[in-house]
Design brief:
It is a single chain. The protein is mostly helical and about 220 residues long. It has a domain of about 60 residues: Orthogonal Bundle (Arc Repressor Mutant, subunit A). About 50% of the residues lie in helices and about 5% in strands. The chain is built from nine helices and five strands; from the N terminus they run αβααββααααββαα. The protein has a three-stranded antiparallel β-sheet with strand order 1-3-2. A two-stranded antiparallel sheet has the order 4-5. Strand 2 and strand 3 form a beta hairpin.
Amino acid sequence: MSQDDIPGSFDPASDLDPNEIRVLAVLAEKEALTPDNYPMTLNAIMNGCNQLSSRDPIMQLPEDVVHDTLQRLMQRKLVGSMSQAGARTIKYEHRMRIKWSLEQDKLAVLTVLMLRGLQTAGEIRTRSGRLHEFKSVAEAESALQFLIDKYPPLVARLERAPGTKEPRYGQLLGGEIDVARVDVAPAAGSSGGGRTAQLEQEVAALRAEVDELKAQFAAFRQQFE
């Protein structure tokens, strides 16, 4: 039996790249937030990857890149695809819950870390509310510890940065965390582009999602005409 066949295992020798991490996280997020639209189409996944809110870093992935990323994730058995009878659109779902034996609270923590980078337990508790409701910071810390204790670990607890009171946590799916590089990334990215450009991108993504929902509804209605 290979390591890929062992539930709960992750091969650090074949780390996920940033695109793979983003696609997986979007699938896990939308599974909880919009279950009626899950599994997801390629276009919906692309919109989720390029979303401007609740994302760090902000990414702009074209459709062909998202498609290629999904193919790699399917080869690694982290994503599955399906197509309904009579439907042309292929839909995708993540398999992190099965692959790494994760209950929803642990999956919620991992998803938030994948989407938003390094965070404290308190930040994770606040930001994961729609994925899983933690009653206290201690509950979030318990889920974090579970992910840290897995072998190989999926999450790392970092030393407190100078001038801070709380330690931060980060996901390890992309390999060892380079704290210095991660910490300077937001400052570098904040200087480019204006708020207007970001809003225009967000509106474009929302319009694309609405267009897709309209097309799905039209196809559904045709079945009864």
